[in-house]
Structures are given as structure tokens and as C-alpha cells.
Specification:
The complex is a heterodimer. Chain A is α/β, with parallel strands linked by helices. Chain A has helices spanning 40-48, 72-78, 95-109, 117-131, 148-162, 178-190, 206-210, 231-239, 242-249, and strands at residues 2-11, 14-24, 29-33, 53-62, 65-66, 80-83, 90-94, 141-142, 166-170, 197-201, 215-220, 223-228. The longest helix of chain A is centred in the middle third of the chain and has 15 residues, at 95-109. By secondary structure, chain B is an alpha/beta fold. Chain B has two domains: 44-381, no CATH class; 382-444, no CATH class. Helices cover 25% and strands 38% of the residues of chain B. Chain B contains eleven helices and 21 strands. In chain B, helix 1 runs antiparallel to helix 2, helix 2 packs across helix 7 (143-150) and helix 8 (383-392) crosses helix 9 (396-412). The radius of gyration of chain B is 22 Å and the shape is globular. The chains are: A alpha/beta, B alpha/beta. The interface between A and B is large, with 42 and 34 residues.
Chain lengths: 250, 444
């Protein structure tokens, strides 16, 4: 589904990703862990198409298409969704309206008929129920005045409505207390249907107790230095990253 | 000589020839003095600090004719009904080219404690009363105000009795029609002690009306009175609009205003508020939207004459094409007017590289125990918000439109005028599905 080959990315003249390789198959969940400054957020932003990142080498293929040639909204149309580490507050834009514009944008990209307000609200209602979201969040401006936990829940809610093929969760656990972490994880797990793929970026093993990955990768200094089964996360929790960095340097 | 000054000259000549007996001495003298001022000073030039960014010389060159009641005679109930107005209010007063048209109003009797009279009728019936209600300072405002006074024809006198709170808003529809006309409506609002009113003053055009609307609105709020004043300038592309609102707020009174400017070739609105009694406060909000070659200028002036008075101001401008916007917010704090608060913000969005905004706060403070803050921003759309929307699947153009609409929302959110929201939606989003979805959500 997603194939990243030898990806090199610069930000403001500094190379952040230095030959990253990663393949995620359909229905798989991959965790990306690594120390601060290793390039985790850069990876998520480059995949979503944020400006300010220069790809100097390598390729990203998503379901046979070159992702890097597409605009951010086209990537969403192809089924890529990024759950932001810091969801943006947009005062004055209603949460549900944005979501309707997004869903219809994606549908029209795929040549599907746009949903009417009534059809759309039916979808929303069902999802709100499934995610266990407080429906007072619906009628508010996007993330505006939301608590940290509400913002993350809102990301997962949006994901559940947009039904991406690949969801990238960028430190979705940061700033969440244990209850919020559980709710968010349940929301994510409800969307794991064997076809949808997930890239879960996190600092902590804790999240992976709830969203159990198929594979764990360690990202350091702009490349994957170690990959393994889910147990690798436990080992990292116990031993930290230093041993791996030393191993990689040797 | 500029054509507008010629109009004033003609008015002066007519006034000089009119027999004294047909009009009050005071009113006649006031109009004569106003006409003389216009003739002598002419229109303000860009050398005048307050008109530095707004060149009205083009207006002065036009061969305008002062409108009379006959100029709007062709406006029928059917053509009026076809207009898209900001709201459907049960209390509606319609002026065509500045002259009251009873047949287009909402009819029926007014609620108790509210009096709305035609100024032309009052000139006939009780000119002395009118002279006491009008601002008699001929030097007040620019020569545009003097021109309005010189040409004083019709307009509206609104009086609310003590302790009367009106639930239903009063909607003044100022309709312009016809070519190359100078329209000079005048509005007087007198609010009795502890009274409350919501007033909508809406300027619109029928078809491609052209010319200049030069309006003056004078507001006096007695102790404890509150006026919500929504002013909407949305005239045709071939029209220009000069408006002045002069307000005096007594003790514990409150003046809450929104000035919206969307249409017209050239728009200049001056809002002048004097807080004269302790506990008096005002909130001035504004939104202007311009494109093409449009020019929109707001000048506000708030004078804190005594202590414990409070003002807050928020103006937002959205400029596209080669349009130009001006915001000048002047705040004066009189000597020893202590414990006052004054806040001012001007936020502007430039959607094109050729659009321009001149925004300027002016603070003159002669007291030491005051809290005054001001800030101005000029920017483009927030790149992070734009990326967020696009990453969700919203196309780039739609995302820009949505953020622009949201910028305007901040001002219109609290305004109970559904037509304004529809207008902005259509203007920026190209449809009205936003409000449709919100109402569907509410019924969910």
C-alpha cells in the first residue's frame, strides 16, 4: 500500500530525513518510535504534503501513485489522513461544516456523488455514537477552545467520518490522560478493519498497549535503524534508545 | 467650482429667496449657515489629515442633482418586495432617495413609547421642535454634514420614551434609485432614560442606481439608555456613500454599533461617539469587504469626556482586487477622565497583492489612570489552517473561501441579521449551504 524508498528531506536547508525506507501493507499497523528530533513529525508532514519540506531524493508510492506529486487535498482523496500532533484551531469555521466540505471534497475527487446535508448528518450521527464523542463538540468552531483531549478526540472523529485508507497518527497520545488515551485508542481500534492501514507515531510504549501494532520501527537521525515485532516497543521502554544508537553507529 | 458645491450654492440661493414665514427662523438660519460653509470650504481635500487616504474630488466633479420625492415615485411595492434585505422586521420604515414612503413601510401601529416621524412632516408641522432636535453646530463634522443640513429635506425622527424597551427591531431601509442623484437622508434618534432599541439602518440600491448618498445620523442616549445600531452600506457599484453617525451617551448609557460596508464605489463612514456621563460605554464593531476598485474608509472617534467610561472597538477588513481600505480609530481621553478603559483592534485580510489597507490608531490621552490598548494586524490567510483543511480533503480554493468567510464571521456572529450572513456566504463561499447545515444541525 505505502512504499517509502530512500527518502531524503530537508527543512530550511537542514537534512532531517536521510534515506528512510518503509513499507506498510494493507490492513497493517506500524508503530514509529524514536528519540526527539529523529524526524518523526517531518515524516508525517511530508506524507500529508505540508509546505516547507524539500524532498531531495527518494520516492513515496501509495497504491501505485507517486504521493509526492499530489496536492494535500489530492492525497486526502487518495485516502491519506494525518491526525495532527497539534490540531489547528480555526475560529469561525464550524466543525461539522468543515467535515462535510472535506468528505464531499474527497468524494468528488473519487468521482462519487456529493452527500446532501441530511445524508451527511446521518453519517455523522452514527460515528459520534460509535466513537462515544460528546456531540456538543460538533456544533463548535474547529478545535477552537477545545481541551487537549477534545482536540485529539476530534481528530479521531474526523478520521472515522472520512474513512481513510492510511491513517497517520502523529503523537496522538501526547497530552492525553489515561482515560482520554483509552477512548482515543478505542476509536482507532474500531476503525481497524483488516484493510485500513495505520502509521502510529509515538514516544511512548503506553499507547501501544491499547493500539497493538504489527510492526515497530525505530527512527533515529532520519532513517529507520531497527524494525521488529510489537515486543520491540517493550524492549525500548525498558532499555531506552541509546543501545540502538550505539549499535547503529558501530 | 465642484459640482457638489454648486448644488450647495443652488440650495443657498433658494433658501435666500424663500419667504421667512414658511419656515422657522432657527431652521432657516441653520441651513443658510450650512450652505455657506459648503460654498466657502468646498469638499475636504487630501491635504486634510482626516481625508488623507480618501480622495473625494471625483465625487465633487460629478453633475449630481439633489433628489426630491418625485425621483423615487416609480418604486412600487412589487419592486420593493423583490429586494433582498438583511432581515424581515415587522417595524419597517422605508425611505426612497432619502424621502419617507409610507406606502412601502410595514404599516400598522407602532408599539407604545416609540414615535417615528417623517422629518419633512416635522419641518412643516413643528419646525421649532425640529431645530431643537438637530445638531445646530454648523461646524460639526465635515462639509458633507453641512451639505446634508443645507439640503435638509426628508428623513426620520425616532423617539423612544423613558423606560421603554422595544423587543422588535426598527428597520430603516434607505433605498436609492435613479441616476446621478445626491441623496441626503437624515436620521435623528432620541432615546429616553433607561430605554432600549435595536435599530437597523440599511442602505441598498434598486438596480444600477448611481450617484451619492450623503447621510447623517444623530443619536442621543439619555441616562441608562441602550441602542444597538446595525448600519449596513450595501449600495450598487455605481453609487458612493458618505455617512456620519454622531452619538452622545449619558451616564450608564450604552451604544453598541456594527458598521458593515460591502457595496459602493467609494464608501466613507465616520462614527463619532461622545461618552459624556459616568458609566457610559460604547462598542463599535465593523466589517468592510471590497474588491475591484472599491474604496472603503472608516473613521471612528471616541471621546471619553468623563471618568469611568468605557469603549471597545473591533474592525475587520477583507480586501481583494485593487481595492483600498482605510481604518482610522481615534480615541480621546479628556483631562482627568480617570478610570476609563479603551480597547481597539483592527484586523485586515489582504487577498490580493494589489489590495491596500491603511490602518491607524490615534490616541490622545490627558489623564493618567487609564487603561488603553490598541492593535492592528494586516495579513494573509493562516497557512497552518489552510494546510489543515486541505489535508482533510477540502480543495485549496474552497479552503481559502472558508477561512475568509470565517474571518468575517467574527463580526457578524452576534448580529441578528440573517440576510447579512447569507450575503457573506454567497459572496465568499458561492452558496448558502453553510447556514443550511447549521440549521439542520440545530434540529438534530
Amino acid at each position: 500500500m505505502l512504499e517509502i524508498k530512500n527518502l531524503h528531506v530537508e527543512v530550511a536547508g537542514t537534512e532531517i530525513l536521510r534515506g528512510l525506507n518503509l513499507t506498510i501493507g494493507a490492513g497493517e499497523t506500524h508503530a514509529i518510535m524514536g528519540p526527539n528530533g529523529s524526524g518523526k513529525s517531518t515524516l508525517s508532514h511530508v506524507l500529508a504534503g505540508r509546505e516547507g519540506y524539500t524532498v531531495t531524493a527518494g520516492s513515496v508510492t501509495f497504491n501505485g501513485k507517486s504521493l509526492l506529486d499530489l496536492e494535500p487535498e489530492e492525497r486526502a482523496g487518495e485516502g491519506v489522513f494525518l491526525a495532527f500532533q497539534y490540531p489547528i484551531e480555526i475560529p469561525g469555521v464550524n466543525n461539522v461544516y468543515m467535515l462535510k466540505a472535506a468528505l464531499n471534497g474527497i468524494r468528488s475527487y473519487r468521482g462519487e456523488k456529493e452527500l446532501s446535508a441530511v445524508e451527511f448528518l446521518k453519517v455523522v450521527k452514527a460515528r459520534v455514537k460509535a466513537i462515544g464523542l460528546d456531540d456538543s463538540l460538533l456544533n463548535r468552531p474547529v478545535n477552537s477552545g477545545f481541551s487537549g483531549g477534545e482536540k485529539k478526540r476530534n481528530e479521531i472523529f474526523q478520521m472515522s467520518v472520512l474513512e481513510p485508507r492510511l491513517a497517520i497518527l502523529d503523537e496522538t497520545d501526547s497530552g492525553l490522560d489515561i482515560d482520554a488515551l483509552k477512548t482515543v485508542s478505542e476509536g482507532v481500534n474500531a476503525l481497524r478493519d483488516g484493510k485500513r492501514s495505520f502509521m502510529v507515531i509515538t514516544h511512548y510504549q503506553r499507547l501501544l498497549d491499547y493500539i497493538v501494532p504489527d510492526h515497530v520501527h525505530v527512527l533515529a537521525k532520519g532513517r529507520i535503524i531497527k524494525s521488529g515485532p510489537k515486543e520491540l516497543a517493550l524492549e525500548l521502554e525498558a532499555r531506552g534508545y541509546d543501545w540502538l544508537l550505539e549499535e547503529a553507529a558501530a | 467650482m465642484a459640482a457638489l458645491a454648486m448644488v450647495a450654492g443652488a440650495a443657498l440661493a433658494a433658501l435666500e429667496q424663500a419667504p421667512d414665514s414658511t419656515r422657522s427662523q432657527r431652521l432657516g438660519a441653520l441651513r443658510l449657515a450650512a450652505a455657506a460653509r459648503v460654498k466657502e470650504e468646498g469638499l475636504p481635500s487630501v491635504a486634510n489629515e482626516h481625508w488623507k487616504y480618501t480622495n473625494v474630488s471625483r465625487l465633487g466633479e460629478r453633475a449630481l442633482r439633489s433628489a426630491t420625492a418625485g425621483d423615487g415615485a416609480s418604486v412600487s411595492a412589487a419592486s420593493f418586495a423583490a429586494l433582498e434585505l438583511s432581515t424581515d422586521s415587522a417595524l419597517r420604515v422605508v425611505l426612497v432617495n432619502g424621502c419617507v414612503r409610507d406606502d412601502l413601510g410595514a404599516g400598522g401601529s407602532l408599539p407604545q413609547g416609540l414615535r417615528v416621524r417623517s422629518m419633512a412632516a416635522l419641518q412643516e408641522q413643528d419646525p421649532e421642535r425640529l431645530a431643537t432636535l438637530l445638531d445646530t453646530d454648523v461646524e460639526a463634522g465635515s462639509t458633507f454634514q453641512a451639505l446634508n443640513t443645507a439640503l435638509l429635506g426628508d428623513g426620520v425622527v425616532i423617539e423612544v420614551d423613558h423606560n421603554v424597551s422595544l423587543r422588535e427591531p426598527l428597520h430603516l431601509v434607505m433605498l436609492g434609485t435613479g441616476d446621478d442623484l445626491l441623496r441626503s437622508p437624515r436620521v435623528l434618534v432620541h432615546m429616553g432614560r433607561n430605554s432600549e432599541l435595536r435599530l437597523i439602518e440599511e442602505y441598498v440600491s434598486l438596480d444600477a442606481a448611481s450617484g451619492l448618498t450623503n447621510s447623517v445620523c444623530e443619536v442621543r442616549l439619555a441616562v441608562g439608555a441602550t441602542l444597538f445600531h446595525h448600519r449596513l452600506a450595501n449600495e450598487s457599484a455605481a453609487s458612493s456613500h458618505i455617512g456620519r453617525v454622531a452619538v452622545e451617551v449619558d451616564e450608564q448609557g450604552q451604544y453598541v454599533s456594527d458598521s458593515l460596508a460591502f457595496g459602493g464605489e467609494l464608501t466613507r463612514v465616520d462614527i463619532d461617539v461622545n461618552l459624556v456621563g459616568r458609566g457610559a460605554r460604547c462598542r463599535l464593531n465593523g466589517l468592510f469587504v471590497a474588491d475591484g476598485q472599491q474604496h472603503v474608509d472608516h473613521h471612528t472617534r471616541i471621546e471619553h469626556r468623563v471618568g469611568d467610561t468605557h469603549s471597545a472597538e473591533l474592525y475587520r477588513g477583507i480586501l481583494d482586487g485593487r481595492s483600498r481600505g482605510v481604518f482610522n480609530g481615534r480615541v480621546l481621553v479628556a483631562r482627568d477622565a480617570q478610570k476609563i478603559t479603551a480597547q481597539q483592534a483592527s484586523n485586515n485580510l489582504l487577498l490580493s497583492r494589489l489590495a491596500e489597507i491603511d490602518t491607524k490608531p490615534e490616541l490622545e490621552i490627558y489623564a493618567d489612570d487609564v487603561s488603553c490598548a490598541h492593535g492592528a494586524t494586516v495579513g494573509e490567510l493562516d497557512a497552518a489552517a489552510l494546510f489543515y483543511l486541505r489535508s482533510r480533503g477540502v480543495g485549496a480554493a474552497d479552503a481559502r473561501a472558508l477561512l475568509t468567510y470565517a474571518f468575517a464571521q467574527k463580526i457578524v456572529d452576534e448580529i441578528p441579521l440573517p440576510g447579512v450572513r447569507r450575503w457573506l456566504e454567497t459572496r465568499f463561499l458561492g452558496h448558502t449551504r453553510y447556514s443550511q447545515l447549521l440549521s439542520a444541525l440545530e434540529s438534530l
